[in-house]
Amino acid sequence: MSVTVDVFIRFKGSKPALRRILADDFLIATEQKKYFFLNYIEVGLSHRRDDPGYFEGREFRPYDFILWGTTYVWSAGLGTAGDAASVIMGTLAQMLAVRLKTRTMVCIRDFGMERRYRCVRPMKRNRMAEIVDENTGQPPKGLF
User: Fold this and answer.
1) What pTM was estimated for this model as a whole?
2) For residue range 112-139, what is the model confidence (pLDDT) as tens digits?
3) Class at the top of the CATH hierarchy for domain 3-114
4) Please, what sign has the CA dihedral across residues 53, 83, 112, 138?
5) At residue 74, what are phi and psi to the nearest 5 degrees?
6) Helix (H, G, I), strand (E, B) or coil at 11
7) What is the CA radius of gyration of the chain?
8) CB-CB contact of 34 with 46 (8 Å)
9) Fewest CB within 10 A of the end CB: N or C in the chain?
């Protein structure tokens, strides 16, 4: 059994530019045929033109790229490895939103879960950008 966690990214640059950011800042190489991030999450990167089936529906309209991560490690207790993969990819989506100053969304289609993030522009008084959950408008709890 496997769990796939999709990270949708709004990025107006090119696919090689996003690959370079992923490799330099997050040590994620997506150019290889098979690459496992942290030794148990297989990752890949697709553009909207390459895989239009992933972008069907209005909730996927603003996004240009999808970074998918699939884990094949599973436990009898339904999901310690699957939960870890969703936490890792969710954290990655939050960090990408801050790094790219854009919107991201984590989607686990098997569980029907979606969570959107966006980077809030820094204000003049504190000059700090922070990430917020689009549904609540609050920073994610327990991460930063």
Assistant:
1) 0.78
2) 889 999 887 665 554 566 677 777 777 7
3) alpha beta
4) negative
5) -145, 155
6) coil
7) 15
8) no
9) C
Show me where the domains of the chain are located.
3-114
Cβ neighbour number for residue 118 with a 10 Å cutoff: 18
Sign of the C-alpha dihedral, residues 31, 32, 35, 38?
negative
Within 10 Å of residue 14's Cβ, how many Cβ atoms?
10
Could you read off the pLDDT of 68-107 as tens digits, one per residue? 988 876 655 545 666 788 888 999 999 999 899 899 999 9
Listing DSSP states for 89-144 in one string gives: HHHHHHHHHHHHTSEEEEEETTTTEEEEEEEEPPPTTT---EEEETTT-SPPTTT-
User: What is the rounded (10 degree) CA torsion for 55, 70, 16, 100?
Assistant: 70
CB 9 within 8 Å of CB 44: no
The CA–CA distances, whole Å, from 102 to 3, 33, 74, 110 equal: 26, 28, 32, 26
* Residue 79: strand, helix, or coil: coil
For the record, the structure tokens of 97 come out as 């939103």
Nearest to 54 by CA among 65, 41, 44: 65
